[in-house]
Give the backbone structure.
Amino acid sequence: MGTVNVMHVSADKETCAVSSVCVYRVPQVFDQDEDGAVEIIDANPPAELHDAVRSAARGCPTRSIHLR
Ligand code: SF4
């Protein structure tokens, strides 16, 4: 068995500043609802997107993206 490489992405709409940074960086994972707040479209992204998702989480101005 290889190393388990699962990422779970969540985001807090309450603190999201609707900056769209994450949506531009990783549109496969992040989208916006009708009010512009972040919406997760793939909570378990494939391994090839993990670096981009980590980068988007670091780049979120309100730290609204959570990874585990
Ligand atoms: S980067 Fe952060 S503040 Fe900007 S849309 Fe995404 S979750 Fe919201």
